[in-house]
Write a structure and sequence with these properties.
The protein is of the alpha/beta class and 385 residues long. It has 8 helices and 30 strands. Strands 5-4-1-6-11-8-12 form a 7-stranded mixed beta sheet. A 6-stranded parallel beta sheet has the order 14-17-20-23-26-29, with no helix packed on it. The protein has a 6-stranded parallel beta sheet with strand order 15-18-21-24-27-30, with no helix packed on it. The termini are far apart.
């Protein structure tokens, strides 16, 4: 059962900055790009990188997430020896508790990790949109004989104060980590993706667990402690598309990124290519019929998936499974999630509409000035801006 590397995906966050989209759903399970959920990108990266053991650590509102992942067959992770495992908090004889931080979550699943005797442990987030070959990062990690390798992406220096910044020597060995510095020394922002030598990480996890002042978090506690102790930490520079969709604005921007460019004119490192057959994004499939575009419909620059019926106008928008757009309705610069009904004469502009919403006839949702969000299952009448 010994493995060179296994992965743990941290997927238990509440995602409160996504507002009503995560009231009854974990952030990694929020719909994205019409036919996906956010976690599909991380799971697909694992599958495409030939990482065959993946633990998904869940906590907040996990029902949809658990159902979506199932036994992992969509990502070729339904394996007898390995595959995907769902790892929620559990109760011991002395009583159980929620995960109190990302490091605590990993420590509480030490039995799962130890089952595979891994040389390295890959820690991932379940709420980022990107495509990445983790084996290239592992190769760098081994070449440097690093105790820890942290994936970083270059951000504009004027925006660097919003991120955790890694300051490095010329060989990318990290000498300092600054969390949201007012005057950043570099633009290498942490992506929250780590490869640890398991035995080294295990030592620090046990030590951190005894620290009553610790938040038991990788960024706040584990990484600084390992730096202070003199462990070898290196930054792996990732040059592809990456976005943390933790806010309404970033979620909307990442969604619009999917439709702002010709899919046959993808710019390397700038655009996210969903049409690359060499690195597919996999997801659980649904038994919806083909989309139907009526003779009165006008559709431009949009993603429309199975089960949709369109009679109105759709432009610069994303329609998920089973959406109905009625006669003389207009959907513009918007994201419409699954099984939503947009009735006749409705206008939807600059909006994110949750699943199973009904927007009644002649209603108006959204405006040109800001993003409007409608939560799951709402019945909308009149004007909402």
């Amino acid at each position: 059962m010994e493995r060179e590397i296994i992965a743990l995906i941290l997927a238990g966050g509440q995602g409160s900055r996504l507002e009503s989209l995560t009231k009854t759903n974990a952030k990694p399970a929020v719909e994205f790009g019409g036919k996906y959920r956010i976690i599909d990108f991380t799971l697909s990266n694992c599958s495409n990188s030939s990482i065959e053991v993946v633990g998904v650590l869940t906590q907040y509102q996990p029902l949809i997430l658990h159902s979506h992942i199932g036994i992992g067959s969509a990502w070729d992770l339904d394996r007898v020896n390995g595959g995907v495992a769902i790892l929620p908090p559990y109760t011991e004889e002395k009583g159980g508790s929620w995960y109190s931080g990302t490091a605590d979550a990993v420590l509480k699943n030490i039995n799962f990790v130890e089952k595979y005797y891994p040389e390295n442990l890959l820690i991932l987030s379940g709420d980022h949109i990107y495509k990445m070959d983790y084996l290239k990062m592992l190769k760098f990690h081994k070449q440097k004989d690093a105790d820890v390798t942290i994936a970083v992406t270059r951000v504009p220096i004027e925006e660097a104060s919003r991120f955790g910044i890694m300051n490095t020597h010329d060989d990318y060995r990290i000498y300092e980590f600054e969390e949201k510095p007012k005057k950043p020394k570099s633009n290498l922002a942490s992506m929250g993706i780590y490869i640890f030598k398991w035995e080294k990480l295990k030592e620090v996890l046990f030590e951190d667990a005894k620290d009553e002042k610790s938040s038991h978090d990788f960024g706040k506690n584990i990484i600084p402690k390992m730096l202070k102790k003199g462990y070898k930490l290196y930054a792996y520079v990732f040059n592809g598309y990456w976005k943390d969709v933790g806010t309404i604005n970033s979620y909307w921007e990442a969604s619009m990124d999917l439709i702002n460019e010709d899919p046959y004119s993808i710019r390397e490192g700038i655009d996210l290519n969903l049409f690359d057959n060499n690195w597919k994004i996999y997801s659980s499939s649904f038994a919806y019929p083909p989309q139907y575009i009526g003779s009165s419909a006008k559709v431009s620059n949009s993603l429309i998936v199975e089960g949709c019926i369109v009679f109105g106008t759709v432009s610069n928008s994303i329609l998920s499974y089973g959406v109905l757009v009625g006669e003389k309705a207009e959907v513009r610069n918007s994201i419409i999630m699954s099984d939503t009904v947009v009735e006749e004469g409705v206008r939807v502009i600059n909006s994110i509409i949750g699943p199973k919403v009904v927007i009644k006839k002649e209603s108006i949702v959204g405006n040109e000035k800001r993003i409007t969000v409608i939560k799951e299952g709402e019945i909308v009448k009149g004007s909402i801006e």
